Amino acid sequence: MIPPSQTDPAAARRFGWRAKLSLFLLAPMLLLGLAEGGLRLAGFRHAPRMKQLHFPTIAGYDGTYEYRLPTFPAPPGYLWRTQPDTPFTDADGFRRPALPPHPAPDRIRIAFLGGSTTQGQRHPFAERTIDILNAALHAPRYEALNAGCSSYSSHQSLLALRRWVLDRDPDLVCVYHGWNDGLVAPDGYSDAEKDRAASLPPFAARASRALIAQSRLAQGLARAAEALDRSWPRPRVSPAEFERNLRAMARLCARHPCDLVVFTRPPLALHPLPPSEPAAHKACLAIQRRVAASENQVRLFDACAVVQSLHERLQAGEFGPGAQVHQPDGLHLRPLGEQLLAEQLALALAPEHAEAIRAWLDSPAYALSTARLLLDEIMPREAAWFLRRIPPESPARPEAEALLAEARRRFEFADHFWQGCWGGAAADFDSKIAHLRRCLEIRPDDLGVCRQLALVCFHMGRGGDAAALMEGFQPASPAARYEGAVLAFRSHVAGRRLPEAVRAARLRLLLHPADSEAREFLRDAGCPTS
Q1: Rounded-to-integer distance, Cα 153 and Cα 115, Å
Q2: Digit-coded pLDDT (tens) for 422-480
Q3: How many CB atoms lie under 10 A from the CB of residue 196?
Q4: Residues 54, 75: Cα–Cα separation, whole Å
Q5: 3-state class of 293 per DSSP?
Q6: Is the peptide bond before 239 cis (omega within 30 degrees of 0)?
Q7: CATH architecture label of 426-524
Q8: Do residues 264 and 285 make contact, with C-beta atoms less than 8 angstroms apart?
Q9: 57-184+237-361 homologous superfamily
């Protein structure tokens, strides 16, 4: 064959460029292949630090029943929202009551942003605040858009404000942050660093993980990058980022336009305090106050002073023996704390109505309605405190005395429940179970107590014990009987008691014929399903 250079100079030039381009492309691939092969021959392996996307489960109490709701990713960005369309959430995953897309002309819409302290329990402080304002004015003037979600930092709240909240035309936006921001996540990466990972399509995320798992070269590069990363591990949101996020929220609200209300962060009500808490709290307060003082249309609500005052009043015995302001973690408020925080927030948000608000808060009607709510929330000692505030000469005193007697009858049950429940004050397994068993003796038909017995057993590695400890439960409805059967079935499976698990599975199918888990278990066990 005659070489191209001897027949066609133009073809020769094209051949030369192609050869050079091929060499240019193949040489790096060859070098990479050699590096990969060399690392494999040397036995090199490294497990790189991977960004972990955490999407929490929402937990709360409806009476004694602990409900749990999943959250789902809401990309783009590292953001999530709660399961929609539940008894506690609307179609968008926000706290009920559901609101129309835009407020009516005669309504004032207040949006709330924050983490679990804002999303709250069955009746969060946002809901309580609105109830106080509307009752004081004798009209439904105010409404709450509670867009808080468990584990949110100011990073997620800024994304939610941009994407969901401002489009719903709030007149005020309240932001309550400062705890989650300073936490160091298990992977050591900041929330902002996870935005890109959270926005990847599932196939791209899987391909990235597969590359890291298989390629020694990728692992080596990751190891080198980690060695150079002197600031790892990092908090979810650094103090500088926290301030930038608050300022970004303030400027977005000013352009909307609406006011931003920044809550100061209360300290942890723990003894002893974690060593880092005093400095972290001081730094957080300084940022929140600086932003409120320097940005337009920003107000400061001193939640720190309010909650500290509640703790001091509790310590002084004002609320009576056994009353609770905080949950055992020293961060989240119990219903009494939420209610008293809401009282002060209502005054701060609507100072023009301060006289009407104070008149309502001082009224027997307010004390009675709040006491009933607290009784429903298994807080009888706190209900009793509200009832004792009603003067002897009030026409409402007889009703208050009847409710007070009912509250006293519930003291024992509530004391045992809040000691024994998962997350309650009692620490060891036997103590928790003793408290909960006493609750079941007092209320044998209480599904929430039965559920707590099972949760404590499973969370503390004793799932096989749950079925025996739930004996004595007397379900008051088919739905309660079915849930009891599910809990007993899982306990029998954990305890490897096949005959008992089969009986529980058959009961589940009897009560709920569409129960696929029970049907599959019976089929796998070789048992007839009918």
Answers
A1: 7
A2: 999 999 999 999 999 999 999 999 999 999 999 999 999 999 999 999 999 999 999 99
A3: 12
A4: 13
A5: helix
A6: no
A7: Alpha Horseshoe (1.25)
A8: yes
A9: SGNH hydrolase (3.40.50.1110)
| Length, in residues, of the chain | 530
Range 66-74 contact pairs with CB under 8 angstroms and sequence separation of 24 or more: 66/421, 66/422, 66/448, 66/451, 66/452, 66/455, 71/149, 71/150, 73/198
Integer Cα distance of 5 and 12 in angstroms: 5
Q: What is the pLDDT of residue 3?
A: 54
3-state secondary structure of 102: coil
- pLDDT, one tens digit per residue, over 78-120 is 999 999 999 999 999 999 999 999 999 999 999 999 999 999 9
The one-character DSSP state at 56 is P
| Residue-wise DSSP of 161-200 | IIIIIGGG--SEEEEE-SSSTTPPPTT---TGGGHHHHHS
Residue 7 pLDDT > 70: no
416 closest CA partner among 400, 402, 404, 433:
433
Dist. CA 401–CA 445, nearest whole Å: 27
Q: Where are the domains of the chain?
A: 57-184+237-361, 426-524
Upper half-sphere CA count for residue 337 (Cβ side, 13 Å): 28
Among candidate residues 413, 415, 462, 480, the one with its CA nearest the CA of residue 440: 413
Q: Is the preceding peptide bond at 97 cis, omega within 30 degrees of 0?
A: yes
> Strand order of the sheet with strand 57-62?
57-62, 65-73, 80-82
Selection from 459, 457, 439, 451 nearest residue 483 by Cα: 451
CA distances from 514 to 62, 156, 356, 483, 506 (A): 27, 38, 54, 14, 12
Give the three-class secondary structure for 57: strand
Q: What angle do CA 31, 34, 40 make, to 5 degrees?
A: 145
Give the SS3 label for residue 262.
strand
User: Is there a contact between 132 and 342 (Cβ–Cβ < 8 Å)?
Assistant: yes
